[in-house]
Amino acid sequence: MLKILITYFSKTGNTERVAQSIKEGLEGQEIELKPVKDIDPLCLKDYDLIFLGSGIYASRVNKSLSDLIIAAQVLPQNFVFFCTHASVKGYQDGFKLVKRALKKSSSNILGEFDCMGDNIGIPEATIKSMLEKLPPDKRKEAEEHQKRLKGRPNEDDLENAKKFSKSIIKKL
Ligand SMILES: Cc1cc2nc3c(=O)[nH]c(=O)nc-3n(C[C@H](O)[C@H](O)[C@H](O)COP(=O)(O)O)c2cc1C
User: Fold this and answer.
1) Which of 27, 28, 21, 85 is CA-nearest to residue 58?
2) Is residue 59 in contact with ligand 1, taking CB distance under 6 Å?
3) Cα(first)–Cα(last) distance of the chain, in Å?
4) 13 CA: nearest ligand 1 atom
5) What is the largest CA-CA distance in the chain?
6) pTM of the shown model
7) Contacts 24+ apart (CB under 8 A), 119-124
8) In contact, 120 and 12? CB cutoff 8 Å
9) Which one of 19, 38, 85, 119 has the fewest beta carbons within 10 angstroms of its own beta carbon?
10) Phi, psi of 10 (to 5 degrees)
11) Is 130 within 8 Å of 99 (Cβ atoms)?
C-alpha cells in the first residue's frame, strides 16, 4: 500500500473537487487529502507520492505550492501535478516555479492533469459587460468559450481525473 498525499490550493473550489476525484481513483491506498496551507513541509518526505494541485491565477499556480517545495528539506521520489483553468492558453506553464524548485531534487514528475474550471469568482454581470465591449467576431468566440466553461469541472472532467489517478498507480 502506498502512502499518498493530495494537496491543493483552491480559491473558488474547482481544484478541490478535482482533488476529491483524484482521491476516489486511488482507492485501496493510504491517502491524505488536505489544502496546502495545512501541510507541514517537513512531512513531505513521509509520502511515496504527492499530488500537487491548484487553480491557475495570472497564468501560474498559487505560490504556496512552490513555497511548500522550497521549505521541505527532503522530498519524496514521486510527484503528480493537477490544475484547473478558465482559459485554453496561458496555463501550460503554470507549474514553472514548482518545477524549478523540484529540479534541486531527484524527484520524478509522473504525470500532469488539467481541466477547465468555471470562473465562478467573477460575477455574471462583470462577464456580460466584458463580452459587450468586444468587437462582434471576438465576442461570439468569447461567448462560446463561456458556454463551454459553464459548470466545469463537470462530471466528465471529474471522471477523467479519477481515471488519471488510477493510471498513475499503474506506473508505480
Ligand atoms: C484571480 C484569478 C485569476 C485567474 N487567472 C487565470 C489565468 O491566468 N488563466 C486561466 O486559464 N484561468 C485563470 N483564472 C480562472 C481559474 O484558473 C479557474 O476558474 C480555476 O478553476 C479556479 O480554480 P479554484 O476554483 O480551485 O480556485 C483565474 C481566476 C481568478 C479568480
Assistant:
1) 85
2) yes
3) 11
4) 25
5) 56
6) 0.96
7) 119/86, 119/149, 120/12, 120/13, 120/14, 121/11, 121/12
8) yes
9) 38
10) -140, 110
11) no
